[in-house]
Amino acid sequence: MTTPTNRLFRLRSRPHGQVTERDLEWVEESMAEIGEGQALVRTLYLSLDPTNRVWMSQLRSYIAPVELGAVMRGLGVGQVIASRRDDLPVGAFVLGFTGWQEYCVADDSVLEFPFTVLPDPLPAPLTAFLGVLGHTGISAFIGVELGDPQPGETLVISAAGGAVGSIAGQLAKQRGARVVGIAGGVEKCRHLVEDLGFDVCIDRHSNDWRELLDDATPDGIDIDFENVGGPIMDHVLSRLNVGARVSLCGLISEYGNYNEHSDQLGLRNVNQLLMQRVTLRGFIVTDHIDRYAEIIGKLAAALGEGSLKYDETIVEGLENARETLNQALAGGTRGKAVIKVADSSGVLRQ
Ligand SMILES: NC(=O)c1ccc[n+]([C@@H]2O[C@H](COP(=O)([O-])OP(=O)(O)OC[C@H]3O[C@@H](n4cnc5c(N)ncnc54)[C@H](OP(=O)(O)O)[C@@H]3O)[C@@H](O)[C@H]2O)c1
Questions:
Q1: Is the minimum distance from the CB of 283 to ligand 1 under 6 angstroms?
Q2: Strands 154-157, 221-226: parallel, antiparallel or unpaired by DSSP?
């Protein structure tokens, strides 16, 4: 086959605040023929995640920063279009670190997290494997499990309208907890309560969000499913009950600041972790790869029986990934944010 031209984003500088064209450069490059032990994967859908913003920084993290000059790291679903590997046959749909590029060469050197071949026939649309049946749905499951909500307990969840929060809230509800979401905007809050079954949702843009949260948690807070950090987490900490649990999933309010020498970061109410004898557990979803099949099976069953719903924002065109990531980080998307890179309708089969 003739080798395609690749279009991709390379990280040129570490962003301050929003990601600019100078930070992530959109380039066109020719590709070499694949060699022995390699496969060529065409990216179909790219996952946009808050953690992309962390990877662009130099923060000491669970994974190395993206090196300057490198293709931007990203998780995607693609299709194998040429292969000299038995484990990645032509036509297979695969999940893995495609990067922010239209075509990706898969070989042992880049397979730090190997590509997974998706089941055939597919039990769900391809995008679901980047969201509800992928790393965000699995994070929601693990975070709720760690928080261990009991019937009648109050669980507060921040970034509740996002890919993780919207699933976590529904899972906590199924365990009998009273679920209070915090999200950006009246319409997102309405959707979470009326369509996804949250008990209450507080609009974080209201001037009196602290008072609204106090009113919504008259008996205090037993579980904090924490996605944002900053002032929201600080206020939630001040309302934790004795023996409360914090599932620390993310700190999105900080992610734009990791290249700044800022003293803005930090929490005042850490003392409540001590005074209320709280258990705080940070977790990273990829530490639980051995449980993915089990958890995906449970989430797929809940989807099948209609007890779990999910939202997606799908934006067409890889060239729009940088701008869409900025929008997603600012709350401009609902549920899982995904870029449609190429059509999967011209499906290849061997
Ligand atoms: N630990 C893990 O393994 C793991 C895995 C996946 C994700 N995560 C983390 O989980 C969190 C949610 O991820 P996601 O995939 O659900 O993200 P997402 O779908 O992109 O949603 C993120 C939402 O956070 C809200 N937000 C942004 N800035 C905020 C701020 N300063 N204060 C309060 N809210 C803010 C925005 O919603 P509103 O405007 O509606 O508030 C935004 O839409 C992130 O922190 C992410 O890093 C962790």
A1: yes
A2: parallel
